[in-house]
Amino acid sequence: MTLVRELISWIKVIIIAIGVAFLIRTFLFTPIVVEGPSMLPTLESNDHMVVNKFSYRFSEPKRFDIIVFHSPEKSDYIKRIIGLPGEHIAYKDEILYVDGQAILEPFIKERLEKLMSPSHYTHDFRLEEVEGGYEVIPDGHVFVLGDNRTNSTDSRFIGPVPYDQIVGKAQLVYWPFKHFRIVQ
């Protein structure tokens, strides 16, 4: 009889642990593996990350947040928010302009300095010229780019990303261990 009680006790613990893990993964955090070079130098292919799924339940996405979202190709993409709802985005001579104001992008500064011809890193464009032809980013959408502008499928090609397609904010690289860090 004691063995049966012990077994039932262990089964309860296992069921509760599975339930808690399911709730955490469904509503709070989820792992993702970076695939491809689109976020270099910030993130490398095969970096394992934790995505915070609840951060945008309490706050709006912010410029330069790195997010994971469901893409039109039915896979998840990881990109950086460059533009917010109601803003006009343009690039000219490797400078981001938001509503006509130049905005510094410190996360690509080092990469631009290393390039022989930096004017080909982020090709010049205006929001009106990208998928959808918008004058401003629509309400409930963000404009995203990969940090590796020469090799990224992002809002220049798929248009602004709807809030309801955002999985969450990428916050922590945990593997490989030498890359362990909180993502800025």
From TrEMBL:
The active site is at residues 38, 79. Residues 8-175 form the Peptidase S26 domain. One of its GO terms (biological process) is signal peptide processing. It is found in: Cell membrane; Membrane. Keywords: Hydrolase, Membrane, Protease, Transmembrane, Transmembrane helix. It holds the Pfam family Peptidase_S26. PROSITE patterns: SPASE_I_2, SPASE_I_3. Its main location: membrane. Gene3D superfamilies: Umud Fragment, subunit A. It is a single-pass type II membrane protein. This is Signal peptidase I. The lineage of its organism: Bacteria, Bacillati, Bacillota, Bacilli, Bacillales. It comes from Salirhabdus euzebyi. Its EC number is 3.4.21.89. SUPFAM superfamilies: LexA/Signal peptidase. The keyword ATP-binding does not apply. NCBIfam families: sigpep_I_bact. GO terms for molecular function: serine-type endopeptidase activity; signal peptidase activity. InterPro entries: LexA/Signal_pep-like_sf, Pept_S26A_signal_pept_1, Pept_S26A_signal_pept_1_CS, Pept_S26A_signal_pept_1_Lys-AS, Peptidase_S26. Belongs to the peptidase S26 family. The chain crosses the membrane at residues 7-28. It catalyses: Cleavage of hydrophobic, N-terminal signal or leader sequences from secreted and periplasmic proteins. GO terms for cellular component: plasma membrane.
